[in-house]
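Anyone? Bumping this.
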Amino acid sequence: MKKNNFFVLILLFWSLAPFFWQVYTSFSTTESITNPFSYVQNRWTLDNYIQVLTANPPFWRYLLNSTIVGLSSTGLTLLIATPAAYAISKSSFHVERILRLLLLAVSLFPYVLLFLSLLEIARVLGIGNNLLALSIPYSALSMPLAVLLLSSAFKDLPKDLEEAARIEGLNLWQRLRWILMPLSSPAIASTGIIIFLFSWNEYPIALTWISEVELITLPVAIARIAGSSLYSVPYGAYASATVLGSIPLIFIVLFFQRQIISGLTQGAIKG
Amino acid sequence: MTLELKNLGRCVRKNWIIRDLNLKVDHGECLAILGPSGCGKSSTLRLIAGLDRPDEGKVFINNVDVTDISPVKRNVGMVFQSYALFPHLSVCSNLSLGLKVRGIGIKEQNIRVSKILSLMQLEHLAKRIPAELSGGQRQRVALARALLREPDVYLLDEPMSNLDAQLREELRPEIRRLILNGESPVLYVTHDQQEAMAMANRVAVIKNGKLEQIATPQELYRNPNSIFVASFIGRPQINILPTIDGVATGIRPEHIKIVNDGIKCRVIHKEWLGTNQLLYLESTLGTLRMTCDAGREIAEEININWDKKDEHSFDKSTGHTLNIN
């Protein structure tokens, strides 16, 4: 038991230390950042946050943009992936195998290679500088993985339950709505989080599709802060922007984690 | 209300799971489908419910061909072996879901659900989810769900095989009271011959997807038409004596009597069954089973015999009963 705790501590340190360093940096003055181990008169400051939040446009604007893109991509993906996953989980053995292999191959494809052609598409269709349009490539890119995850979740549900629902008179949509989706809500929630995280962190497409400052998403905005001066690297502002950008994510994951755990205990019966 | 199967057959990967099945269940009748596991009895229920499509034949409910009608629209009530209660819904919602999707108003739903809950003595469990119920309670909820919609046919798929023996005996009269006394025909699938005999008006014995015999429990016991049926019905199992001239003779353990002068046997084992005892005998005819009064003192060497009229004769090569008379 004690040995386990020790390893847990090492693991926590390993994964959380960089984040805490970032938090520490965000509250430090430029002087203390450059001299971390020697005495500095004014070590702590809120200036970095004030600078980021009072810039034009203010930082919350980027948070809002990213939230809009994240929610719309997640919603769009789940809306299409759920029925698709159900269809795959009901296909015959061979068809299912082939579809799964194809989806896996597509989801392993390095999407960065696509961004130039995607940009071309956006130009032709005239959908650049539009936050909701950004969720189209995002959901297209997360679709294969989402369908894979959801279809195995549907497959894991006991067959009897859906058959009982058919006999009870539930048609396909009613079964999805009342039986299958509630029972696979843990899988749907975790798939949703993965999609949201992807769209929250995505950089190359966001950078190329959006040029209006009012509309850029978080990663692009943070990169702009980092490159805002030719002569110095604004570590403090950069760190505070990163911290601000992570807070919503932490809350979302914490919130859904509770859903996931309660979902697991609810589904824990068979027969 | 009636249920009729005509030439029903289902083929999976060139294997006939069930074939040439013809049977009719009358208004208010309970027919048990009895057979060893894997003989196709659950597949038959699935065909009737519409969960699988037959590759041959037709299903009629109330003389209407429902073969091509989806299970959503066939009004059948089914109880699954696993109960198949919706784990995320309370007992109450488990019951009302079927009414809700049929567009029945909330008021009417509540009236019908609370009526069935009190009939099944489940009122105090209405707010619980299935995980919080015992096996017997889940079984009662599953029955209640089937009863609630007043279906045209009841399909019970080994409804009690997950319960312990005592609970089974408690539930039997309840199933009889609630379902078997109604108007709808009942198909009761089981591998337990005792349960089939106790519950059903008629029993269909199935072997390897083929109907072996269909008759009343008494008829199956008295006049089995094959070795298979004779061995499947009646406990302790029938004795099959060595074949003479291609004829195998069967004699039930309860028909063997201890006499002064007869076949000499040595008693190798005794099992006490309460009202009677089961003796395992070694004789020139092989190992035999016989039952006799529990109070009777049994010597180590006994003589046995039986009435000729209690014998069953089977053609050894086909397994069918021979009509000697």
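Late reply, but here is one note on the structure posted above: Chain A has one domain: 45-266.
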